[in-house]
Predict the structure.
Amino acid sequence: MRKTLLAVAGLALGGAALAGLLASGALERSVVSRAVETPLGADQIRALAPRGAAVAAAADCYACHTARGGAPWAGGMPFETPFGTIHATNISPSAEGIGGWSRADFHRALRDGIAPGGRHLYPAMPYTSYRGMTEGDVDALYAYLITREKMPVANRPNGLAFPFDQRWTLSAWNLLHLPAAVAVPDPTRSDLWNRGRYVAEALGHCGECHTPRNLMQGLRGEAALTGAVIEGLEAPDITPAGLARMGFAPASLARFMGTGLSAQGGATHQMFEVVHYSTRHMPQADLAAMAAYLFNRDAPGPEADAAVPAAAPAPTPLAAAVSDRARASYDGLCAGCHGAQGEGIPHVSVALRTNAGLRTASPASVVRAVLAGLPAQTFPGGERMEAMPGFAVDLDDAALADLTNWMRTEWGGQASALSPQDMAVIRAAITPRHAARD
């Protein structure tokens, strides 16, 4: 009994000591150099700000730090997590934002996840990816943000339950999930591939949405870019195999990221925001580099593949009765906009017979679009797609299953045996955000 009590006491003391170390920050690992302790001069800030605008666009800062209808850079955007709601913070140069932050403060927040005063940031802010940003790019971003208009908007409180509202516990999270070091250029790969890795992994932080997470919401490195579910919406597999399965090639992917439209469909939901606020502003060279990296190539693909529609995969078998019922639903509800053969109508609706959404493993995105609809969207270059109405009241779960199975087998080239029960689960999970009308 005495040994047991001593063992328990030892564990308790050890746990308390570890908690103390975590709370004190003694176990934090910084990648920020001492050089940033020297403040930037006014002339340096003016010179760096234009470059910082490009960095801010590539890092997609505006989309997250500007609430719908809110002041620019003033925060307030809600993010739903398994642990509660987190609101993006004000990053304008006001007192409520980063107005009192030094150059070093900004570097530590962006790359270490620790704000002034030792306050840990929640990893909804992708500092795990921004950790890989260069010192020069972080300086430029700081110079750009600190010269924006001040927005005196108070930060909204987060809605996290205990113990997730205890920021010091993020020391343990960082110890487990924050990379100890940052990637350096791989001398065995081309400059194009290395630039693409930097754009995709650090600046663009693609993995933050497209990589599945563990129970603690850390990125699962062994499954990088294989797809994930974010706020109930599917971010597809963007490994080379996943992209090829959706019908992309390097040049067509670069075009999609720059315009939001391709033979594979149009960007919707969060991906539309990525294109609208971020990737359409990126240099063509960076889009090509990112595409080359995602396809794991050292040279760009043929330019021609951006203009050639991806061939539809060969249909897979489906029971004749299911096909007949689904075809009737499609002709009555979908063909008027998407064409009798799924060819789409320019400036009205995207093609379905080459649509990436019908080739992904999960049917959720397509089913949600059918049920909840999609808003009208304006894409770069003046292109637009008309609004798609939702058909939740027109299709019961059995008819929806038939339609989804038929489209996935006819134009997605994959076996599909979804049941009405599967449709009911997706229908029940739909929120107003999935309709993309907020």
